[in-house]
Amino acid sequence: MQLYLMQIQISNITCDSFKISWDMDSRGRERITHYFIDLNKKENKKENKFKHKDVPTKLVAKAVPLPMTVRGHWFLSPRTEYTVAVQTAAKQPDGDYSVSQWSEIIEFCTADYSTAHLNQLLQKAEAIAGRMLPFTVFYRNQQREYFQQARCRRSVPPNALQHRVQHRKTPQDSPYGPYRFQIQADLLFNHNTNIYFGDFYCMYTSYHYVILVLAPDGSKGDVFCKGRLPALDRSNNCFLTCTEEDDGSLSFCHAQDVILEVIYTEPVDLILGTVSQISGHQLMSLSTLNAKKDPSCKICNISVGR
């Protein structure tokens, strides 16, 4: 039996869902029992098509009326480009499948979070942030080559910093590399810095991540964040605070029960801090590199595009 597949159409795109449909030849439409859908991030150029007998890394869905909604269980991320292709299949009495050829590959981009969605995430993150503990430094771990290149530029490019401090010392383990750039907190976070909430998520673990953005007031990064991300009170929020003491000095606190990743929007001059090798292990279980968000977590997921 030969099955035919025509052009794909993508519609109703949100930050974590979309609808997909395609025209099918009437000669095979009534016999189709399943859809095989291959979805990949666009930067992954290596094809990952699968046969129905392989371990299914892509969706095998029972045939339903089109358009079909594909949502959160795909680990869809906001503002991300994807490619999608489809096969149709008819299950035979012996359990095998007759399948069509793969369709053309379609590219699309998911939508951004709306302000309402980000505020929902913010409220969920605030609920589990926990008590505030003092800290004094921000730090970033990377491989040696990263800092060698940074020395040539004399600055660390805008990127994620970590700052969690335990017992007044930074932890000696990191998933990102054995070399650490460390800088006093007041050099990046002070009265001239605005703070924004960026995201809240987990990756099939009991601990959760909160992404914050620090932007010098009036900088290009600050202008970009205004109106796009929820602004937080610098001295009174649930995640990261900067307050002035009676003597004019600044004190800093961070939330205990979430892992904070802080994005600083401007390059940071290496002269302002120190680079050294840590003595601990590279805890890859904490790495967010190529990690997938848990779409079933009731703590950090919101209903979008339903």
From TrEMBL:
Q: Which family does it belong to?
A: Belongs to the PHYHIP family.
This protein is called what?
Uncharacterized protein
Pfam families linked to this entry: fn3, PHYHIP_C
- Domain Phytanoyl-CoA hydroxylase-interacting protein-like C-terminal, chain residue ranges per copy: 109-153, 168-306
Q: Cellular component per GO?
A: cytoplasm
Annotated Fibronectin type-III domain ranges read: 7-98
- Gene3D superfamilies, sorted: Immunoglobulins
